[in-house]
Amino acid sequence: MDGVPAAAAIWARAKSRRDGEPVPVDETGLRERLALDGAELILAARDGEAVGFTLLAPHERTVEIYYLAVDPDAWGSGVADELLASAERHALGIGRTALELWAIQDNHRAIRCYERSGWTATDELKDDHPQGRVERRFVKEIISPTTG
Predict the structure, then answer these.
(1) Scanning 43, 58, 81, 96, which has the fewest C-beta atoms within 10 Å of its C-beta?
(2) How many other C-beta atoms are found inside a 10 Å radius of the C-beta of residue 9?
(3) What is the largest CA-CA distance in the chain?
(4) Are strands 120-126 and 98-104 parallel, antiparallel or unpaired?
(5) Residues 106, 135: contact at Cβ < 8 Å?
(6) Cα–Cα distance between 82 and 143 in angstroms, integer?
(7) For residue 16, with 0-12 CB atoms within 10 Å meaning exposed, 13-18 middle and 19 or more buried, which class applies?
(8) Neighbour-count burial of 147, counting CB atoms closer than 10 A to its CB (0-12 exposed, 13-18 middle, 19+ buried)
(9) Entry pTM
């Protein structure tokens, strides 16, 4: 099953709600990231409908989360926490013990979620976001339940 159309629609709805302006559904960025070696798209579903997703890919020592979005109708219901836990399990399953992601610095809702889940903000910033918004890198060290 190709989950990209559902993920792209969730991304558009979430960005639209976050930014207060319409966002078209566009699969291009998702498909580009899915073309990375080892990339995975993880969908979260409730009652048979996709309500969130994460798209991640491994690096030499880490797994990077490129996208994480939850449909606004499911905000606050634990979907993001489930997706972050899935990302941790995936990373451990492929022999990585750290995760990383970039978050828009003024996306306070997302940052609270990451911090609640044990992520740490770094001092690394980038401003190559298409709308000129600054992004901050977050990291999380993970420990296997069988070894830690």
Answers:
(1) 81
(2) 15
(3) 46
(4) unpaired
(5) no
(6) 17
(7) middle
(8) exposed
(9) 0.92
Token pair of 121 as six digits: 């903000």
Q: Are 67 and 11 in contact, with CB atoms under 8 Å apart?
A: yes
The contacts of residue 14 (CB under 8 Å, 6+ apart) are: 69, 70, 71, 72
Tell me the pLDDT tens digit for each residue of 6-53: 999 999 999 999 989 999 999 999 999 999 999 999 999 999 999 999
- Per the structure block, which two tokens stand in for 69? 């979005």
Give the chain's radius of gyration (CA, Å). 15
Q: Dihedral of the CA atoms 117, 115, 87, 24 (nearest 10)?
A: 130
Q: Write down all domains in the chain, each with its CATH number in brackets.
A: 4-141 (3.40.630.30)
List the one residue out of 35, 38, 28 whose CA is nearest residue 7.
28
Average pLDDT over residues 107-113: 94
Q: SS3 for the chain, per residue?
A: CCCHHHHHHHHHHHHHHHHCCCCCCCCHHHHHHHCCCCCEEEEEEECCEEEEEEEEEECCCCEEEEEEEECHHHCCCCHHHHHHHHHHHHHHHCCCCEEEEEEECCCHHHHHHHHHCCCEEEEEEECCCCCCCCEEEEEEECCCCCCC
